[in-house]
């Protein structure tokens, strides 16, 4: 059963220019994206910088309003909910950030920070809150006496554990994790990823996990959606993606990331030549045609739909 269903999601940011600051164009950050996430499942979103990953995360969290499309959380359509109406649903979808420190008040003890949502959502106060917070600390691998410490006294990995404890405090169904381990040392990354996996197994959490790092994706995701310029170009289970990538862009990403010989890696990397085009002015047809080694004349004009080419394996390419 899916806990999050996103259909044809579009988010365009207007560009204003000229003396009168009229709208002169739009950044097509997310340009028609659909996916579902099941209870207990991790869907990874991967792609180069600027392809729209964080915008999808912020939109499903309703931190920004979608331009169009539909977001259904636990069977309820939350697309058009205004902040007040959205409030009760916020318990069910929480987030953890790349840099949890920036969202933590440096003057509050860690226990108060983690317990904030319990008060805000009227779940627990006073002694009951403290007991719940102590359990959360234990659950994420922090000692209960750390509740009295301040955010600056924790290491990066411990702060991410605090962020996870805070997100968990309201018992969400879905967690949007936007590059949660990118700022951490590789050894600490694995510890935090393993904690997230344990919590998922224990609590049946669904994760929308955003990362540009394929090794991280491979560790944590069940299914992976590869994004290019605001669109999903390939979506399938992790094993199939790494063994049988079908989209030329996925092929290039994998070749660049996994080649054992660095000289070969450099040569393969050349498959994704040039810079990512601007989402304010994306190429016609298939967005990837300007960098694709296999592009045909048709690719310049026809925008390929995301098709299911074998059970559960979706690809948006005219040639596959
Ligand atoms: N508030 C905004 N106003 C205007 N443009 C925006 C806004 N937020 C994002 N964008 C643009 O939308 C596009 C997608 O940005 P987004 O942050 O979603 O990418 P991303 O895939 O998360 O990249 P990264 O890997 O660097 O985090 C980019 O071109 C970005 O500049
Ligand atoms: Mg981002």
Low-confidence stretches: 265-270
Number of strands: 12
- Shape descriptor reads globular
Number of helices: 10
User: Helix fraction?
Assistant: 25-40%
Q: Main beta sheet: strand number and arrangement?
A: 8 strands, mixed
**Element-level helix/strand string:** EEEHEEHEHHHEHEHEEHHHEE
Q: End-to-end span in angstroms?
A: 30 Å
The mean pLDDT is 93
β-strand percent reads 25-35%
Q: What structural class is derived from the secondary structure elements?
A: alpha/beta
Strand order in the largest sheet = 6-7-8-3-9-10-12-11
What ligand species are in this complex? Answer: adenosine-5'-triphosphate, magnesium ion
Q: Compute the gyration radius: what is it?
A: 21 Å
Written description of the protein model:
It is built from 10 helices and 12 strands. Strand 4 (68-73) and strand 5 form a beta hairpin. It has helices spanning 53-60, 83-86, 110-120, 126-139, 156-168, 186-203, 214-220, 238-243, 248-258, 262-269, and strands spanning 2-17, 22-38, 42-46, 68-73, 76-77, 93-96, 174-178, 206-210, 223-228, 231-237, 307-310, 313-315. 31% of the residues lie in helices and 25% in strands. The radius of gyration is 21 Å and the shape is globular. The longest helix is centred in the middle third of the chain and has 18 residues, at 186-203. The chain is α/β, with parallel strands linked by helices. Residues 265-270 have low confidence and may be disordered. It has an 8-stranded mixed sheet, sandwiched between helices. The structure holds adenosine-5'-triphosphate and magnesium ion.
């Amino acid at each position: 059963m899916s806990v999050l269903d996103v259909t044809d999601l579009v988010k365009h940011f207007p560009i204003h220019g000229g003396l009168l600051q009229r709208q002169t164009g739009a950044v097509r950050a997310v340009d028609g994206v659909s996916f579902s996430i099941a209870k207990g499942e991790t869907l990874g979103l991967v792609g180069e910088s600027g392809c729209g990953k964080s915008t999808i995360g912020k939109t499903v969290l309703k931190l920004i309003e979608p331009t169009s499309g539909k977001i259904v959380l636990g069977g309820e359509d939350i697309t058009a909910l205004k902040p007040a109406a959205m409030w009760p649903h916020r318990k069910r979808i929480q987030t953890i950030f790349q840099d949890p420190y920036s969202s933590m008040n440096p003057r509050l003890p860690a226990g108060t920070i983690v317990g904030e949502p319990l008060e805000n959502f009227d779940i627990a106060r006073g002694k009951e809150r403290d007991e719940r917070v102590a359990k959360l600390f234990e659950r994420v691998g922090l000692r209960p006496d750390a509740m009295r410490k301040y955010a600056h006294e924790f290491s990066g990995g411990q702060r991410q554990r605090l962020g996870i404890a805070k997100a968990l405090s309201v018992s969400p169904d879905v967690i949007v994790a936007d590059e949660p381990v990118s700022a951490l040392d590789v050894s600490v990354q694995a510890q935090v990823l393993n904690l997230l996996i344990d919590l998922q197994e224990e609590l049946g959490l669904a994760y929308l996990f955003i990362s540009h790092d394929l090794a991280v994706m491979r560790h944590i995701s069940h299914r992976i959606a590869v994004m290019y310029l605001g669109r999903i170009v390939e979506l399938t289970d992790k094993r199939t993606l790494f063994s049988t990538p079908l989209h030329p862009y996925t092929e290039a990403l994998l070749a660049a990331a996994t080649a054992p010989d660095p000289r070969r890696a450099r040569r393969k990397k050349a498959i994704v030549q040039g810079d990512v085009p601007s989402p304010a002015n994306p190429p016609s047809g298939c967005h990837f045609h300007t960098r694709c080694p296999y592009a045909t004349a048709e690719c310049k004009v026809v925008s390929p739909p995301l098709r299911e080419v074998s059970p559960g394996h979706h690809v948006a390419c005219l040639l596959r």
